[in-house]
């Protein structure tokens, strides 16, 4: 994929996310390629995150050190991304969707690459006009939600953005439950608390 087609795909993702999703899935990338792309996207996101934290350090040095850790960020974001892909795939299939795991993977990995671009824009805004950052964040969140719903819709061939929104909400609930269970199992040991407390 050359620079021109990348620029075109970015534009299409924003203006017509359904078409962009179909274009992505038509690439028919192999599972190994998708896993490598996922790893690259997560690492790039981690680097941008650390750079942002350096520019705007937190007051608490312990938290600052934790948020600046590439390893921690990669594990959290990478695990969260894989969990999200699996949830969107499984919940969508339960609701009658027909997406393959590769279909769901490619659209979600592409969103991660777009997130790198967004983080770069945020850093520029932070330097040039920090007062606009909150407004920009709200706009990006809404746009990201819009794109994600259409990507899920196309991957599962629902032809119903409302149904795809349902997949998104149910997946978020399922992920929250899984994380809560995991934290209840390992959280105590991580925090140095007895297991029966």
Quick tags:
197 residues, mainly alpha, 8 helices
Task: Write down the secondary-structure element order.
Answer: HHHHHHHH
Q: Write down how many β-strands occur, each being a DSSP E stretch of 2 or more residues.
A: 0
Characterize the main sheet. none
Number of domains: 1
Number of helices: 8
Principal-axis shape: globular
Q: Measured on Cα atoms, how large is the radius of gyration?
A: 18 Å
Sequence stretches where pLDDT stays below 50 over 5 or more residues: none
Span of the ends, CA to CA: 54 Å
Backbone structural class = mainly alpha
**What average pLDDT do the residues reach?**
85
Percent strand equals under 5%
What level of helicity do the residues show? Answer: over 70%
Q: Can you describe this structure?
A:
With 197 residues, this protein is mainly alpha-helical. It has one domain. Helices cover 82% and strands 0% of the residues. The chain has helices spanning 3-15, 17-25, 31-55, 61-67, 70-94, 101-128, 133-156, 161-191. α1 crosses α2 and α5 (70-94) packs across α6 (101-128). It is globular and about 45 Å long. 23% of the residues are buried.
